[in-house]
C-alpha cells in the first residue's frame, strides 16, 4: 500500500538502559540497538514513554538519539519522541529532532491540561507547520486524560501531508475502524498496545509500536506477515501464544517489567529512574514464570 512515510510494521518503543547510578548506560544501549535490529525491528523510537522520557532531560534525549543513530548505522528508521503538553516546547523538541537527523517524530496528545479537539487541531497544526519531518501522532487517553477523536485525526491528516500516521493506544475497535474509514488511504494506523496488534490490523492498522518486540520481535513479525499473507489461523495462534507475555510486561508501570526481562536475557540492567521503582522479588518470580516460555 502507498504510504506518506514508511516506518515499517514493527517500531520498537525502546527502553533507555541505566546503570546502578541511574545514568544512561551507553554500552548496554549499543548492545540493545543491535539486538532490536537483529530481531525484526523496522524502526526504533527513541525517548518515548517506554524510554522514560518524563525523567530524561532534553540534552540527554539528544545525546541518546545521536548515539543510537551511530549504532544503528542506517540499518533501520529512527523516530524521536518530541511531544509536550506545551505547544512551543513540542516545536522546540521537533527542531531538536530535525537537527539530530531523525527520520520522523512521535508527538503525543497534550497531557494534564486536557485541550479540546479544536485545541488539538491547533497544537498539531502548529507542530506540522514548523517542520518538514514526518509526524506520528500519539493518542493515549490513559496517560493524557483525553481522547483525540477520529474526526480530528482525519482533519489533521487531510490538511498536513507530513502527518503520516497515528499510534492508537486504546482498546476501542470502533474508534480504530472509524479512524481507518475517515482518514486518507495513505495514512497509517499503528497499534500502541502489543495485545491489540492483531485485532487492530484486522480492521486496517498497519503494524505496532511495540514494547514486547524487545523480547519476541521475530514472533511478532511472523504474526503480522502470516495475517497479511492470508494465514489468519497461524496469526491467531501466534497471537494467543504471545498474549500472556503481552499482558505480563504491563504488570507494573512500563518500562519496569520489560527492563526486568532484558536483564534476565543478559542484554541490559533493570534500573529505572524515580519515581518508578524496580520489581520486588515476588513480582520478579511472577514475571519470570511467564517469560521462561518465550526465551
Protein architecture, described:
- Helix content is 46%, strand content 13%.
- It has helices at residues 26-38, 58-72, 87-99, 117-129, 141-144, 150-159, 173-182, 197-202, 213-228, 232-248, 256-264, 281-291, and strands spanning 10-13, 43-46, 77-81, 104-108, 135-139, 163-168, 188-191, 207-210.
- The protein is globular.
- With 295 residues, it is α/β, with parallel strands linked by helices.
- The chain starts with 9 loop residues before the first strand and ends with a helix.
- The longest helix is centred in the last third of the chain and has 17 residues, at 232-248.
- The protein has one domain (10-229): TIM Barrel, CATH 3.20.20.
- The mean pLDDT is 98.
- α1 crosses α2 (58-72) and α6 (150-159) packs parallel to α7 (173-182).
Output the radius of gyration: 18 Å
- From the 3D structure, determine the CATH topology: TIM Barrel
Principal-axes geometry comes out as globular
Low-confidence stretches: none
Strand ordering within the main sheet: 1-2-3-4-5-6-7-8
Number of alpha- plus pi-helical segments: 12
Tally of individual domains: 1
Order of helices and strands: EHEHEHEHEHHEHEHEHHHH
Q: Into which percentage range does the β-strand content fall? A: 5-15%
Mean pLDDT: 98
CATH superfamily: Aldolase class I
How far apart the termini lie comes to 34 Å
Structural class: alpha/beta
Give a count of the beta strands, DSSP E runs of length 2 or more: 8
Amino acid at each position: 500500500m502507498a504510504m506518506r512515510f514508511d516506518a515499517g510494521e514493527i517500531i520498537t518503543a525502546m527502553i533507555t538502559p541505566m546503570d546502578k547510578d541511574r545514568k544512561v548506560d551507553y554500552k548496554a544501549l549499543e548492545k540493545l540497538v543491535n539486538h532490536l535490529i537483529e530481531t525484526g525491528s523496522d524502526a526504533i523510537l527513541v525517548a518515548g514513554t517506554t524510554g522514560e522520557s518524563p525523567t530524561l532531560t532534553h540534552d540527554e534525549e539528544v545525546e541518546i538519539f545521536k548515539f543510537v543513530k551511530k549504532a544503528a548505522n542506517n540499518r533501520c528508521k529512527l523516530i524521536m519522541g518530541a511531544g509536550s503538553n506545551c505547544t512551543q516546547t513540542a516545536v522546540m523538541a521537533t527542531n531538536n529532532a530535525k537537527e539530530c537527523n531523525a527520520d520522523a517524530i512521535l508527538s503525543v496528545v497534550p497531557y494534564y491540561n486536557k485541550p479540546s479537539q479544536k485545541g488539538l487541531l491547533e497544537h498539531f497544526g502548529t507542530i506540522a507547520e514548523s517542520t518538514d519531518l514526518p509526524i506520528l501522532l500519539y493518542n493515549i487517553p490513559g496517560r493524557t486524560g483525553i481522547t483525540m477523536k477520529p474526526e480530528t485525526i482525519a482533519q489533521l491528516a487531510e490538511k498536513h501531508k507530513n502527518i503520516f500516521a497515528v499510534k492508537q493506544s486504546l482498546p476501542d475497535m470502533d474508534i480504530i475502524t472509524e479512524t481507518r474509514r475517515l482518514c486518507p488511504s495513505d495514512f497509517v494506523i499503528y497499534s500502541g498496545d502489543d495485545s491489540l496488534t492483531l485485532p487492530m490490523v484486522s480492521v486496517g492498522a498497519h503494524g505496532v509500536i511495540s514494547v514486547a518486540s524487545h523480547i519476541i520481535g521475530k514472533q511478532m513479525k511472523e504474526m503480522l506477515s502470516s495475517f497479511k499473507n492470508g494465514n489468519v489461523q497461524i496469526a491467531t495462534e501466534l497471537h494467543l501464544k504471545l498474549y500472556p507475555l503481552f499482558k505480563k510486561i504491563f504488570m507494573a508501570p512500563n518500562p519496569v517489567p520489560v527492563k526486568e526481562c532484558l536483564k534476565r536475557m543478559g542484554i541490559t540492567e533493570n534500573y529505572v529512574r524515580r519515581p518508578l521503582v524496580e520489581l520486588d522479588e515476588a513480582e520478579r518470580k511472577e514475571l519470570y514464570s511467564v517469560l521462561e516460555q518465550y526465551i
